[in-house]
Amino acid sequence: MIKLENICKTYGKLDALKDINLTVGEGEKVVIIGPSGSGKSTLIRCINRIEEPTSGSVYIDGELITRKNALQAVRKNCAMVFQSFNLYPHLSVLANITLAPMKLQKKSRREAEELAYHYLDRIGLRDKARAKPTQLSGGQQQRIAIARALATQQKIILFDEPTSALDPEMVQEVLDVMVSLSKESITMLVVTHEMGFAREVADRVVFMDDGVIVEEGEPNAFFENPENERARLFLSKIIR
Amino acid sequence: MNRSTSPFAWWRFVKLFKDWRVFLDALLVTVGVALAALALAVAIGAVLGIISTSRRKPLRAVTRVYVEFFQNIPLVIIAFFMFNALPYAGIMLSTATIGILGVGFYHGAYVAEVVRAGIESIPKGQFEAAHSQGFSYFSTMIHVVLPQTLTIILPPLTNQAVNLVKNTSVLAMISGGDLMYRTNSWAADKASYAPALVVSGALYFLLCFPLATAARAYEKRIIRAGLVTAATEEKIIAVTDSE
């Protein structure tokens, strides 16, 4: 489904990603963890080319997307949920969700709104359809951002630290939506610090440090007994 | 007859009110020139402002040159140039046309800066979200960035409109038939400056004050609605400070 080959990303002198290779299968749930600045956000942002890799190749469904003109193709495959929600503040919740389906996928308003209400029901916020994003709590905004991502019905959904900007009491409602989503066939790549979530939904955990994938493996084995010293150190700091 | 010689003597006002048509016609000229110049300034400003946020350096350079040129010369020079110099090239423009073009070009530079600052104040996350959904640069602008920009820049744009109305008075220097010119010529003719200036000032005030008040009220409203922060709004308004 997704294949990353020798991805490097440099900002000036800083090597954010150093020769990353990663393959994600169809429907697989991969959680990427690691200390801040380890390059995990940069990595998933390279997958839909919000960041342009300095070198290396990204394939989605066998198609090379790290070349010019492939931009629309990649974004037809990936939806993304951001740390800071990035809802469109000038539009209602409903219009946030229907914008891309209507303008890009040329769905009729009725079709797009039906779809939007379907996903609003899923996240339990149907009654907020007419509200403006700024009137909602952070947790509600992030759930709507997830609904917006789902409404484009892509095969891959990328989460870039979806709960990091939330007040603690709102984290769970967002994780609940993500957990329920993980029961489906959609391919999920999640950058997060939520280890409980990683344990519960991940097929595979990828641990990054300093721009490198240091260790990857099945979550139970990884959390119980990480092979790598840095991974062990990281886990000992965050799991109490 | 023992008439008062005070500059504000009542009989001077009476004379003026008898000639109210002169002032009304002049006001209409000012309003007409201002509206047309505003349309021109907004058109120029929108195009240049959007271009100035593009990634292409030569495009940005063109807008920079335009903006710096018009922001750093007096409006009077532009008016005089079109009125006195262009005829030597066989280009004879009516004073109204000069008013529209001169004031429009001049304020186009300021509107461009407002538009640029407005677009730049839209958080990067908005572009990223739209791009991640598959919107091209152009459709991101149309559907996501510009609608938000418009809300944010409406107060500074309205301030621009106020300045623009006042600046149409440059026409007085080239016998433009606008409110300022007619005020001055009527006053000189009747040797009654004070009432003319008072009334004309009041008319300008009536045009500008409601606009300025509306701009402030709208600014407060969008800040309260969380659509923009007070600091951002201040920053955008500050780009026209050189005026």
Question: Main attributes?
Answer:
heterodimer, A: 240 residues, alpha/beta, 6-stranded mixed sheet, 4-stranded antiparallel sheet, 9 helices, 38% helix, globular, B: 243 residues, mainly alpha, MetI-like fold, 10 helices, elongated
Structural overview:
The complex is a heterodimer of chains A (240) and B (243). Chain A is an alpha/beta fold and 240 residues long. Helix content of chain A is 38%, strand content 25%. Chain A is built from nine helices and ten strands. In chain A, the strands form two sheets. Chain A has a six-stranded mixed β-sheet, with helices on both faces. Chain A starts with a strand and ends with a helix. The relative contact order of chain A is 0.17. The model of chain A has no long low-confidence stretch (mean pLDDT 92). Chain B is an all-alpha fold and 243 residues long. Chain B has one domain (3-240): Orthogonal Bundle (MetI-like fold). Chain B has ten helices and no strands. Chain B has helices at residues 10-18, 20-51, 57-71, 75-85, 95-120, 124-132, 137-167, 179-190, 193-224, 230-238. Chain B is elongated, with a radius of gyration of 22 Å. At the A-B interface, strand 6 and helix 3 of A face helix 6 and helix 7 of B.
Please give a quick description of this structure.
The complex is a heterodimer of chains A (240) and B (243). Chain A is an alpha/beta fold.
User: What's the multimeric state?
Assistant: heterodimer
CATH topology of chain B: MetI-like fold
Strand portion of chain A: 25-35%
- Within CATH, the superfamily of chain B carries the name MetI-like
Biggest pleated sheet of chain A: 6 strands, mixed
Write down the secondary-structure element order of chain B: HHHHHHHHHH
What structural category arises from helix and sheet content of chain A?
A: alpha/beta
- Low-confidence spans of chain A: pLDDT under 50, at least 5 residues? none
Strand content of chain B: under 5%
CATH architecture name of chain B? Orthogonal Bundle
